[in-house]
Amino acid sequence: MNFSIEIKNLKKKFRDFEAVGGITFNVEKGEVFGLLGPNGAGKTTTIRMITTLMPPTSGEIFVAGYDAKKYGATIRKYIGYVPQALSADSTLTGYENLLFVAKLLRLNKKEREERIDYILNMLNLKDAENRLIKEYSGGMIRRLEIGQAIIHRPEVLILDEPTVGLDPVARLNVWKVLETLRKETGLTILITTHYMEEAEAICGRIAIMNSGKIVAMGTPEELKLKTGNPDATLEDVFTFFTGNQLESGGSYRETSQLRKRIQRFS
Amino acid sequence: MKQVNYAKESKDSVKTKSPLKIILDYIFNSFTIAEMEVRKLRHDPTELLTRAVQPVLWLLIFGQAFSRIRAIPTGNVNYQTFMAPGILAQSMMFISIFYGLSIIWDKDQGILQKLIAMPVPRAAFVTGKAFGAGIRAISQVIIILFLSYLLGLNIKWSLLNIIMSIFTIILGAAFFSSLSMALAAIVKSRERFMGIGQVITMPLFFASNAIYPIQIMPHWLQIIAKINPLSYVVELLRGYLINGSISGTGFDWLILILATVVIQVISAVLYPHIVT
Fold it and tell me: Which parts of the sequence belong to the ABC transporter domain (chain A) (predicted)?
């Protein structure tokens, strides 16, 4: 079996609102797969179900070959998860944040120190290891969080809007880290984003989501071809498949959360 | 460095995770979470000083004023001595009852979502946090005892009794912080939680033997005071710090431990729902 994630007809209903309306897709081992869509398209809900934070209403999820219905606890071993909100603990240092996760995962002392050292070096955070996260920049925090998520060598890394609120340089650094990881470790990466350039820069394949459904899936090139316009940008692709402009404005709550996050990042 | 996949393990090995391994994971993870709580405190200890203000005011102002009335039967010690263990228990409770805020904060920050998506027994988060709250509360013992010494209160200065008081405070803090986490998991938002926290702290405090003995209460209040865990904490502390009695405290301990275990189970069940 060569799929890290298999999703079959996945649905999630909140009372009478259908957040995810029957989606099906597979993510191959070692692939970078992007879920692209505006806020409220159902990306985060999908991610939460894959990370076992939330049970689906119906449908099937397999991660690393395990059925999420039966083996939630096992699946958590195979995934590293970087949530949308800043999840590093701001009152601890960078080193302590990694130590915390490594200890929770019960790595022994030798392995722990090796992994932390390797990750800090790879992420270019070695010099900042003893500074509190409060003093980190947004890009540094994101990189550290990726470090936390891969400390136990997961098979799949799942990132929910990893570069929201980051400046272009920080964003580029996050992309570089993901690319390095994929090359060095063969990690499968599932990422959600509403940035076209992000999807184009790092994803091998993308699925465009709108109102809880997947409206198109393929490599960025394939999707461009389908529009019949060889010069199409991914923005055009999105408009072609959904009939909507890709706009990131969300509800009041989303907007206020986004602004808070940007404030913390800057 | 090459990726080593857990997927290469036999798929059956995970199904048969031994109960011993689960228990060990739970214990070690609880310690890790408590350790991080202590590390946070070490990075920013100002919190401990601000926490000292309230108990000091109670002992100095309220305590001095009430000792003049001499209306409260306090046995063979003066009123300030009588109330010192009560104020210690009270300040422990005030800190612990707002501890649930920290998990709402963790949730708002996204820390919780990440932790819950990790292969860690979820109950360990509640136990670890409760243990962390207990360790924080030790600072209150030091502050109150120091102040009692300055005021020349009639405290039994024996090492064993002080150590037993510290254990009592840790257990009390574990109980009230677990209660707080259960509430936080239910109300989910900071504003609502602050409201509820304020509503329950005062009744818990006044319906206990912290600043007056249960015997002087009206009958209905006596019943409430007797099921109030804070009363048991105060009774234990008074036993150790004033009467100096180590024996005959088994029942109070039993009640407190049982109450803590029950509320821990409840919070552990409710806790993961805070993210949904």
Answer: 5-236
* Residue A78 distance to chain B (closest CA, Å): 7
Strand partners, A156: A79, A188
The answer to whether B116 contacts A53, with C-beta atoms less than 8 Å apart, is yes
Of B6, B33, B35, which has the smallest distance from its Cβ to A77's Cβ? B6
User: Cβ(A47)–Cβ(A12) under 8 Å?
Assistant: no
Q: If DSSP codes are grouped into helix, strand and coil, which group holds residue A233?
A: coil
Nearest to B230 by CA among B92, B135, B99, B130: B92
Cβ atoms of residues B168 and B246 within 8 Å: no
Contact B44 A105 (CB under 8 A): no
Q: Do B2 and A52 touch (CB under 8 A)?
A: no
| SS3 assignment, position B78 | coil
Residue contact A81–B35, C-beta within 8 A: no
Interface ipTM above 0.85: no
What are chain A's domains?
3-265 (3.40.50.300)
pLDDT of A222-264, one tens digit each? 888 888 777 777 777 878 887 765 554 555 666 666 666 655 5
Tell me the two tokens of residue A79: 């995934």
Choose the mutation target among A52, A104, A121, A256 for the interface with B, i.e. most B CBs under 10 Å: A104
Query: pLDDT, tens digit, for every residue of A33-79?
Result: 999 988 788 998 999 999 988 899 999 999 999 999 888 888 988 99
Helix-strand-coil split of chain A, %, nearest 5: 45, 25, 30
Measured from the Cβ of residue A51, the count of other Cβ atoms closer than 10 Å reads 27
Distance between first and last Cα of chain B: 37
pTM of the shown model = 0.82
Residue ranges covered by each domain of chain B: 20-275
C-alpha span between A70 and B260 (Å, rounded): 31
How far is residue A104's CA from residue A114's CA, in Å, rounded to a whole number?
16
